[in-house]
Amino acid sequence: MDWVPIVFASFKVLALGIAMFFAIKWHYDQGEKGERRAVLRTGVKMAAIFVLALLAVGLIAFVLSRMLGLDLSFP
Length: 75
Hints:
This protein is an all-alpha fold. It has helices at 4-33, 36-67. It is built from two helices and no strands.
C-alpha cells in the first residue's frame, strides 16, 4: 500500500505535464496563424480572470473560516 500514492502522483504529474505541453503547443500554433495582438489581449484577459477568481476563492475561504470560528491570527 505504500507504493499506491507514489504511482498515482507520478501518473498525475506525467498526465498533466503531457496535457500542458500539448495545450501550450496548440495555443502557440494558433498564435502563429492569427493576429498576435488578439492572442495577447485574450491572454491578458484570461490572466486577469484567473487572478480575480483566485482572490474570490481566497475571500470566500477567509469569510467561511471566520464564520466557523477558526482562529486565523498570526502567532
